[in-house]
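Kindly go through the following sequence and its backbone structure tokens. Advise at your convenience whether the structure tokens fit the sequence:

___
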Amino acid sequence: MKRVFSTEACRIRASFMLKCESVILFGIVLYLLIAPLLSNVSAPAALSAEIVFAFLAAIGLWFSARGFDKHRSFGRAPAVLANLIALGVSYYMISGNFLYVGFPLALFAIVTLVSSALGYSE
């Protein structure tokens, strides 16, 4: 039986969770692209910046996951940084009483952060 915190288990878990985060961000990008067709946009510049930022983040997370798949170290630092940012975002969501998204995001970010940090050995 594999240990939960073994390097190999953490690497596999980190790769899977980073790919999930990437797919979720791609879904958000699609939503943000479709939303202006259905409603009125009050700040189109901010919306376009959000679309570009989310798209680049999704690509970055996907390549980070591929780094874990290939047993390379280039995916670890971006994965840790992205999930530290996600922890900050979840804190503000929880502070704003948006608990249904804040708590799952925090839990997901913590598990991915730990898995990413422990998923590579020299």
User: Anything to note?
Assistant: Residues 7-38 form the longest helix (32 residues). The two ends are 23 Å apart (CA to CA).
